[in-house]
Amino acid sequence: MTESVRRAAPAFPSAVLLAGAGKMGGAMARGWLAAGLAPQALRVVEPRPSPELEALARAHGFALLDAPPWDGAPDVLVLAIKPQALDEARAFAPLAGERAVVLSILAGKSVADVAARLPDAGAVVRAMPNLPAAVGRGMTGLYCATALDPARRIEIETLIGATGAFEWLADEALMDAVTAVSGSGPAYVFYLVECLARAGEAQGLAPEAAARLARATIEGAGELLRLSPDSPASTLRENVTSPGGTTAAALKVLMADDGLEPLMRRAVEAARRRATELAG
Length: 280
Description:
The protein contains ten helices and nine strands. The chain is α/β, with parallel strands linked by helices. It has a nine-stranded mixed β-sheet, with helices on both faces. Strand 3, helix 2 and strand 4 form a beta-alpha-beta unit. 32% of the residues are buried.
């Protein structure tokens, strides 16, 4: 069982400490600031900041630090360090007391893994975001082993909602499935664009034209899907498919017993299995 939520009401925490600001951490910080998080409420610990992060700090005026601060415990500690550097999270233990919620985006690291390094934290929320979070269109799976205070839950949802949509999971074991579907999913879509373009080339289109046609088609279909309340299967696909027409001929191939669905099932299963192996 999961609980799906689109976006949270604007209720940012009063103090956020972001530990690690690489591509994903930096994208989250940009999303928070764009959605209304006060710069004075944000501190970022990144010993090797990128020029983009330094420019963001100058533009907004939030604190950019090279080591954990020793005062001012945050409401939310966001762990965005590399998963293999999890033990470095111990340096933040003095700041992760009972009032702090830890939001971890460390791929493959369980709530128990994080709690073992930050045992005094009030709660640990595990998150699995994906690459489109960088443009505010992400999809993030969320799990917490303990019941969150409603106000703290809204704070977490606001932080994640600033980067896109989110889905609460009832079982942490489902996080590997989230990784396989939405975490890795953007790469599947990018590869679909490649394949569609190459199929167009095979029909005589110039490579550049085929690439433009394929890319714009996926972009447009995605936007139509976003804006429409209709089901992809029951309405959107049927709206494009005239009986006996060209689309129907193509879908007959894609929907065959050995077509796209069984292939996608195998691909997602392979990703889920690998996520489980990497988690140990």
